[in-house]
Amino acid sequence: xxxxxxxxxxxxxxxxxxxxxxxxxxxxxxxxxxxxxxxxxxxxxxxxxxxxxxxxxxxxxxxxxxxxxxxxxxxxxxxxx
Length: 81
Prior knowledge:
Shape: rod-shaped
Number of strands: 3
Distance between the termini: 55 Å
C-alpha cells in the first residue's frame, strides 16, 4: 500500500526532481571597423562585464566588419577572473 494511504502516516513528503538549469550564455558582438580609440573603450567595457558574470557563465565573442571575422567561444578559457 502506498504510504499516503496508510492511516498512521499523517505527513507524506514528496521530492520533485527539477531539471538543472543550463548555465547562462553571453555573446558580445563587436564591429571591428569601429575607430581604434572606440575599440579600446569597447574592450574595457567587455572585460568589466565579464568580471561580474557568474563563474558558470559561457561567454562568446563575435567580431565583424564587412562579414563575420571570428567567433571565440568560452572566453573564460583565455581570461582569468
